[in-house]
Amino acid sequence: MGAAAGGSAPKGIPVSLSIGGFGTGYSLPSRQAALDLSSTSGTPTSAGASPACPAPSATPQHPVRAREADLTATPRCTFPPVAYLKRAVDTGIFERVHVRIYDDDNCEAYWHLAWDRWTAAYPVTRFYVGMTASKMTHGWVHPKNVYYDVMPSVQKADNYSGFMI
Questions:
Q1: Which residue, among 82, 65, 64, has the nearest Cα to 73 in the 3D structure?
Q2: Which residue ranges run through the membrane (predicted)?
């Protein structure tokens, strides 16, 4: 995760570790694998303890502290998700899911329905709307549309938590 992430915790900056992204070859094989990843990502050693990136040094003014990291997933908005991601999210370990409503033809017109399905399927998970900030990205939404359409729709879910840009 690197020294930069490790230095964020003492400053009060939350650290988010996201599982997902491009490709279809990644999954967590079991609930235990997710627990193992979650428990090791919050230790001081994960903040950069490797020969290439040593752990930060403690001083009386700046002690090295364990920090929390949210284990998140960033799926495309289509629901149900692809099998490898569904297996991972079904473990119940993910604290946050960032549902991407951009760069996906299947979500352009019906993202509202997918959002409702995601939030209903995992009621204890915090959900964030994943949006792009770049006008050049397929699925960019004008800020006025975010304010008048996206926000009122997503805020209806009890487990809505915010936006991921």
A1: 82
A2: none
Residue 134: predicted pLDDT: 85
18's enclosing H/E stretch is: strand 15-20
pLDDT digits (tens, 9 = 90+) for 40-67: 554 433 333 334 434 444 444 444 444 4
The Cα–Cα gap between 48 and 106 comes to: 39
Tokens of 84: 């490898």
Between residues 121 and 32, the one the model is more confident about: 121
Query: Which of 113, 90, 87 is CA-nearest to residue 99?
Result: 113
Residues shown for the chain: 165
CATH superfamily, domain 2-164, is: Glycosidases (3.20.20.80)
Amino acid found at 36? D
The average pLDDT across 127-137 equals 88
The SS3 call for residue 149 is helix
Of the candidates 22, 17, 34, 128, the residue with the CA atom closest to the CA atom of residue 88: 34
CB atoms within 10 A of CB 34: 21
| pTM (whole model) above 0.90 | no
Q: How far apart are CA 130 and CA 69, in angstroms?
A: 19
Residue in 67, 20, 12, 73 with CA at minimum distance from that of residue 43: 67
Per-domain boundaries in the chain: 2-164
